[in-house]
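The authors assume throughout that readers already know how a fold can be written as discrete tokens. The format is easy to grasp once an entry is in front of the reader. For illustration, here is how one protein appears when written out as sequence plus structure tokens:
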Amino acid sequence: MTNLSAIIIAKNAEEMIGDCIDSLNFCDEIIVIDNASTDRTSELLKILGVKAFSLKSDSFSELRDFGLKKAKGKWVLYIDADERVSPELASDIKAAIENSAFPAFKLQRKNFYLGDHEWPYIEKLERLFKKNALEGWQGKLHETPIVKGEIGELDGFLLHYTHRDLATMLDKTIEWSGVEADLRLQAKHPKMTWWRFFRVMFTGFWDSYVKQKGYKAGTAGLIESIYQSFSMFITYARLWEKQQKK
């Protein structure tokens, strides 16, 4: 019986998918949900010999639910193509599923920006579940799991190599800012006026540079925090544009 299935969500991940899969060699099953990649991702998946399924969607909940249906394991571990399971976390996961006091666990995620610049703030994300305790996911972009039972927490780190360079940062903003703007429009966000732009941009910078202590990451921390402010501006500028058309 398959005990642990890893579910990878990937899109145009030819440079990252190999290392991601290598970090999952402790899993009994590896499944990749390919979200309409246009690079060599699908070709590499065939070479690597993992189970791959295609689904085009701008909803992360839909992608995660699709992976859940395909998984055969008693437990499921969700991971993105730009993430790696550290050896310490792999050991923690194996111990947790053998002697599970909880039906689900939060993982600590350590982020790296613009290469190998470590971010000071550590996230905690629900990523490991007993399959029969996970009812599904909700939310289009910032998705959350619906879990039956109490959620535990593991000590090892999930390593996240996000915003590897400025080009990928810009591509990501262009791709997802429209979706973010649509969600705000559907939620009947108040009409965008000039002063709201300054407020959301300041909030983005403050959260990144001060609350998450991005200042400790030096120049990379400043660049990332300013970029977060810029990303907020683009999202809300697109919201303004959609409100004008409506």
